[in-house]
Every structure is written in structure tokens, then in C-alpha cells.
Write a structure and sequence with these properties.
single chain; 231 residues; mainly alpha; Flavocytochrome C3, Chain A, domain 2; 2 strands; 2% strand; globular; disordered N terminus; binds heme C
Length: 231
């Protein structure tokens, strides 16, 4: 059952997602949530979750982007909402739910929060925090090998380019974040800023190895042949 205050479409979305996460929020401003995190992204394609990228991007040859992400800040972002600091922030803001249950926090701490449920595929686990698709775009249509191998086609099927659109990061890295520090990053000229794409991207770098870039499929074929021979 959807409580009355959830009757406008935005609220329904949040309520549905809340159901998906296993709880019902009490005081939610759907307006606010809609302008933060993935709810504020254009949605031409469906989300599938990080597990659907791992089959290829968990391979050593590829550069194992999955492993780098697993160790990085975004993977732990849901868990962070249970930290003492989060609980303190929650008390300060008088949240009626714990931070891990509050849309005010989840909006930026998990992938696809506030996104209509029918745009999300089952494998997406909110507990895994901010995943590949928050930065690379909902991946249901570009994740197929043949499409991925051709950057132009992948872009057509929804693969974003954070290098040329830093706004992708700033949907979350902005002053609506309670821990936003306007002087977190220092630019070369000494100016302080709250977010600097170049430095931030370097902190989470997970490149495809230089010699593999553009050649993964053929190199993987060779590797498989080699593995066959050694059997
Ligand atoms: C859906 C929201 C979201 C998006 C989009 C996002 N981030 Fe984050 N990011 C977070 C959250 C939440 C944390 C805090 C994680 C934690 O420690 O629990 C974080 C932490 C970080 C950190 C560590 C803190 C710091 O500033 O040193 C870096 C670096 C970072 N993000 C880089 C990026 C870059 C680069 C992009 C864009 C390509 C990006 N993020 C996009 C939510 C997001
Ligand atoms: C607008 C998006 C946004 C919202 C809303 C948001 N966060 Fe965050 N959170 C971030 C980002 C991005 C970071 C990385 C540091 C930064 O730039 O603030 C972060 C970092 C944090 C950290 C520090 C992690 C660490 O150890 O470095 C805590 C704690 C935290 N958030 C708790 C919360 C709580 C609790 C709420 C809800 C009241 C919340 N956040 C709402 C985006 C958000
Ligand atoms: C917080 C944002 C963020 C998350 C989460 C994230 N990436 Fe990235 N990724 C980037 C940025 C920024 C770059 C560098 C710019 C670029 O090449 O598009 C990048 C680059 C890449 C590249 C290309 C590297 C190259 O050499 O050109 C691959 C492949 C990739 N990411 C896959 C993944 C996969 C798979 C996941 C999840 C396991 C993931 N990314 C999670 C932001 C992110
Ligand atoms: C079936 C295998 C496969 C799956 C699944 C897959 N990818 Fe890829 N991906 C590739 C291949 C192949 C390339 C091109 C590698 C090369 O440079 O040769 C690639 C390249 C990329 C790039 C780099 C694009 C660039 O700038 O050149 C990104 C980013 C990326 N994938 C993200 C993802 C994300 C996010 C997912 C999950 C939603 C995903 N991929 C799922 C095979 C896959």
C-alpha cells in the first residue's frame, strides 16, 4: 500500500525503490531526491548492476576494473551510511530513519536510487553502493561484447563519457552532500575547490592496459587458444 503523501509520481518512484531496498521512508522530499544522484540522470536505458560488467571487466587482461572499484570509495558508500559519522549526521539533521534507510542519504550513496523500478534489472544490489553505471551510464544495451568493442556503437547504446561531462560526477559531488568540503581539492594555481574532476578521476583510476586498449577481443581469443593448448 502506498501512503497518501506518496501519491504523486515522484513519491511513488521513491516508495517503490524503498520497497526494493526493503523499507518504507517516512519523510521524503521526492523533489529533492529527483535532483540528486542517479535520479537526476537522463534515462534512455536500463540499469543492470556491477555484477553484469564483471564477466569481462573482472579479467586480468582487461585491467580488472571490478577489483579496483571493489577497493575504492564508491563500493563502500552504502556501508558508510552505517558509520558513526553517518549516524551523527543523521541525528544532526533529525532524520526519521537511519541514514541507510533515508532517501536523503541513499540518493547519492547507491546506484539508481529514485530511478523507476522498471528501469532496473534484478542483479543490481543497492548494498554494493555506487557502481559502474552511475558513472558510465545504465548498461543494459551497451554491455554486449560486440557493441562494447566498438566505442561509437557503445556510445549510441548509452555508454557515457565522464571525461567530457564532469557533470556526471557532480550529480553527487556537490554541496548537497553533508560532508562536502569546499576546499577538498587544490588546483595548480593554489585555488581550493570542492571537486576537481582530474584529481578525483586519478584517485579512482582503473584503466584498460595500454597494449590491450582497442585489442581486448583479439588478445582474449589468443589467450583462450593458449589456455586450450595447455590443457
Ligand atoms: C551516484 C553518486 C556518485 C557519483 C555519480 C560519483 N560519486 Fe564519487 N563518491 C560518491 C560517494 C557517496 C562517495 C563517498 C564514498 C564513501 O567513502 O563512502 C564518493 C567518493 C569519491 C571519492 C573519494 C573522496 C574524495 O573526494 O577524494 C572520489 C575520488 C570520487 N568519489 C570520485 C568520483 C568521480 C571522478 C566521479 C565521476 C566520474 C564520481 N566520483 C561520481 C558518490 C558518487
Ligand atoms: C548530493 C549527494 C550526497 C548526499 C545527498 C549525501 N551524500 Fe554522503 N557523500 C557524498 C559524496 C560525494 C561524498 C564524498 C565526499 C564529499 O565530497 O562530500 C560523501 C561522503 C560521505 C561521508 C564520508 C565518507 C568518508 O569516510 O570519507 C559520510 C559519513 C557521508 N557521506 C554520510 C552521508 C549521510 C549520513 C547522508 C544523509 C544525511 C549523506 N551522506 C548524503 C554524496 C552525498
Ligand atoms: C565513480 C565513477 C566511476 C565508477 C563507479 C566506475 N568508473 Fe570506470 N571510469 C570512470 C572514469 C572517470 C574513467 C576515466 C575516463 C574514461 O575513460 O571514461 C573510467 C574509465 C573506465 C574504463 C576505460 C579505461 C580506459 O583505459 O579507457 C573502463 C573499462 C571502466 N571505467 C569500467 C568500469 C567498470 C566495469 C566499473 C565497475 C566495476 C567502473 N568503471 C566504475 C569512472 C567510474
Ligand atoms: C561481454 C564483455 C563485456 C561486458 C559484459 C561489459 N564490457 Fe565494457 N568493454 C568490453 C570490451 C571488449 C571493451 C573494449 C576493450 C578494448 O579496448 O579493446 C569494453 C570497454 C569498456 C569501456 C571503455 C570505453 C572506452 O572509453 O574506450 C567502458 C567504460 C566499459 N567497457 C564499461 C562497461 C560497463 C560499465 C559494463 C557493465 C554495465 C560493461 N562495460 C560490460 C567488454 C564488456
Amino acid at each position: 500500500m502506498i501512503p497518501e503523501q506518496f501519491q504523486n509520481p515522484g513519491f511513488v518512484v521513491v516508495a517503490l525503490l524503498a520497497g526494493f531496498l526493503g523499507f518504507v521512508p517516512a519523510t521524503v522530499s521526492s523533489e529533492e531526491v529527483a535532483h540528486l544522484g542517479d535520479a537526476s540522470a537522463p534515462l534512455a536505458h536500463d540499469f543492470v548492476g556491477a555484477r553484469k560488467c564483471k564477466s569481462c571487466h573482472g579479467k586480468e587482461l582487461m585491467g580488472n576494473q571490478n577489483a579496483t572499484w571493489q577497493k575504492g570509495p564508491h563500493r563502500r558508500s552504502f556501508k558508510t551510511l552505517a558509520s558513526p559519522e553517518s549516524l551523527r549526521i543523521g541525528r544532526e539533521r533529525d532524520l526519521s530513519e537511519s541514514p541507510s534507510e533515508s532517501p536523503e542519504c541513499l540518493a547519492c550513496h547507491v546506484t539508481a536510487f529514485g530511478v523507476p523500478a522498471e528501469r532496473i534489472w534484478k542483479p543490481l544490489q543497492a548494498e554494493e553502493g555506487v557502481q559502474c553505471e552511475s558513472c558510465h551510464g545504465p548498461g543494459r544495451d551497451y554491455r554486449k561484447k560486440k557493441i562494447m568493442a566498438n566505442l561509437k556503437n557503445a556510445r549510441k547504446k548509452g555508454l557515457w563519457d565522464p571525461d567530457s561531462d564532469h557533470g556526471i560526477c557532480q550529480r553527487c559531488h556537490n554541496d548537497s552532500s553533508p560532508t562536502f568540503d569546499p576546499s577538498r581539492y587544490t588546483l595548480i594555481d593554489g585555488t581550493s575547490v570542492g571537486f576537481d574532476y582530474q584529481q578525483a578521476a586519478a584517485r579512482i583510476a582503473h584503466p584498460i592496459p595500454e597494449h590491450v586498449k582497442g585489442h581486448y577481443i583479439e588478445l582474449r581469443e589468443k589467450q583462450k587458444e593458449e589456455e586450450e593448448r595447455q590443457k
